[in-house]
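Record now logged for everyone:
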Amino acid sequence: DAVSEDGTPLDPFPARKTRAPPKRPLRLLPRGYGWLVRMAPELVPYGIELAHFLAQPDMLALLASSPRLCRALRPLCRMFGLTPPTPSTADAPDPPPRRGPSPARLAARRRRLSDAAAAREHGPQGYRPSTFDR
């Protein structure tokens, strides 16, 4: 047992210093759908012009060919309260196929199974290897 210099026993579980919770950052700009036109109603005509510009057939074709441009315009549309343009999913490439876990990962997972997980997978008696050789 640990003893201090003056002979008193040391506390086996010293109190931990508690950290203060992190402060939430101040929100300097408002958020939400259409916040810019609520703050500055004189900007409504510019939002209308943007909506007409995005509705042009040439612009729709450009947006359909470039999903990056749609992602770049999305915050601006939200500020003005417009429905953001959506890229066409017909021309989008298929996502790569998902691979299953490797045999090494499966073996590691089996070794990590807790008792509760083993009971769920193998019943309340748990896993019992066969005693008979076949």
Q: What stands out?
A: The helical segments are 35-39, 44-54, 57-65, 67-80, 103-112, 115-122. The radius of gyration is 31 Å. Residues 101 and 107 are 10 Å apart (CA to CA). Residues 35-80 form one domain.
